[in-house]
Amino acid sequence: MKILTLNCGSSSVKYGLWEMPGEQPLAQGLIERVGLADGIITHTVTGRDPVRRDRNFPTHGHAIEAVFEFLTDESHGVVGDVGEIDAAAHRVVHGGEQYTHSVLIDDDVITAIEDNALLAPLHNPNNLAGIHHAMTIMPDKPHTASWDTAFSAAFMPDRATMYAIPYEYYERFGIRRFGYQGLSHLYVTRRAAALMGEPSSDVNIVSLHIGNGSTVTAVAGGMPVDQSLGFSTCGEGLVMGTRCGDLDPTIPLFLMKHAGLSADEAEDILYRKSGVLGLSGRFVDRREIIDAATAGDTRAELALEVECYRIRKYIGSYSAAMGGIDAVVFTAGVGENSAVHRAKACEGLEFLGIEIDDDKNRAAFGRTAEAEISTADSRVKVFVIPTDEELVMAVDAEAIIEDRYDIPTRFRYTFEESGFVPTYLRMG
Ligand code: ADP
After folding, report:
1. Residue 152 domain-assigned?
2. In terms of domains, do 379 and 404 share one?
3. Ligand 1 centre and the CA of 225: distance in Å?
4. How many domains does the chain have?
5. What pLDDT digit, counting tens, does each position of 201-235 carry?
6. pTM here?
7. Tens of pLDDT along 286-297?
8. What is the CA radius of gyration of the chain?
9. By residue range, what is the domain housing residue 198?
10. Residue 285 designated active-site
11. Residues 213 and 262 placed together within one structural domain of the fold
12. Ligand 1 centroid vs 116 CA: distance in angstroms?
């Protein structure tokens, strides 16, 4: 069975074609700058060098058409015809309270994605656009949805999901904490348990997805018990590229009352002008933050310090929430690549049993290696694990189609097996 995974972001489309069972990636690709000038598609067939083409993609529809064009192309394609693709698995950010695990997409699911766009206005509409376009090209094939909220929203206890505001707002508007980036946290925590040679039900892990968007999840015995993002993808938790993370909610109210900001302007500041960009005044890319801080730029240094201090606080608080931890995992663009962030985030945490090996930490770089970066004596293991959300989507879709899918407490993923070979190695 050949499964296409599609991940439609606000200005990007990430895709992969998988041969199942066996989780063999046939091709992967990334389309950047959808809806903007200077678009790029990078298409990689397993075992070959990436092909890069400049092309503009005015809409997500154009981007999805390009995905099928490249997958069936005479020289760069991996299938002769679209009909050879058996199913499509779509990533959707917000499933609300209704959808707490991957599902086959039907009319009710489409309606739920539309309804939940109120809670994820930057994400769900793009996800839905991708689904509609792919369904037009593959009308008779099953399409599945895997949700970013599902892993945490399903399993976090009430004490972690409820805000201490009048209960009627939960009842009337569904205002509660959901948690995000669950596909990534599911993958890296199950991999970490496998690398430790333990069943995931036996270990407590702090999982750090640090990229442009960042989250930390407390995963106890394989299940999330707390998550740093709550209701929205912005106003709680870690410092992100342009999003603020933890914030006193009276600050935007103050700015609206005293600086004359409208609600839309306040939202724009919190989502797009805050985070390391807001603190540094110039940079989103953490490589530039590190370079500028090293060169003596005090605002860049402040941004780095605030971001890493926030991560450190969450490691500490989630260790307390779980009554102790066995591992810390770093993943995503910053987590997989930045030894500086990892070292600063773990600084002073020896009292928790966390000790980083500087040489191993510096050596862990790029999307090509799972690495343990703690010292031999460290009571808590520290891992760098390249995330693989698409693999989770493909495995879920295959299991749904074969009618053997189950919630993560009962479903065992192939990447939990000790002999599992990660996708980056299978790509050749
Ligand atoms: P997204 O949330 O958009 O998926 P990614 O997980 O791709 O984000 O992470 C993107 C971030 O990773 C960028 O801000 C980039 O600065 C950071 N990054 C990539 N390589 C490095 C590196 N070597 N050192 C520090 N940060 C890095």
Report:
1. no
2. no
3. 26
4. 2
5. 999 999 999 999 999 999 999 999 999 999 999 99
6. 0.96
7. 999 999 999 999
8. 21
9. 188-384
10. no
11. yes
12. 28
